[in-house]
Amino acid sequence: MSPTVFVFSAQSPQGAQVLGIIAKRAYRLAYGRLVPDAVPPPFHEAPEYAPPAQPQGTRAFVADSDYFAAVKPSTDVLVRGSGYSTRGPVRMRKRVRAWGERAMRVMPGGALSFSQPEPFTEVPLTWELAYGGRDEHAEKCLLAPRKRFAARRGERGRIFAYPRNRWGRGYFLNVDIDRLEGQLAPRLEVPEEPVEAAQILAADPCDWKKRPAAACYAPMDCATFPRAAWAVRSPGTPLDARIANCAPSELCGARLQGNERVCLMNMHPKRELFELELPGERPRLLLEPPGCSIQDLPALLQTVLIEPAEERVTLTWAAALDVLAPYPAEMCRDMRRAVRWEK
Question: How far is CA 338 from CA 13, 14, 294, in A?
Answer without folding.
Answer: 26, 27, 10
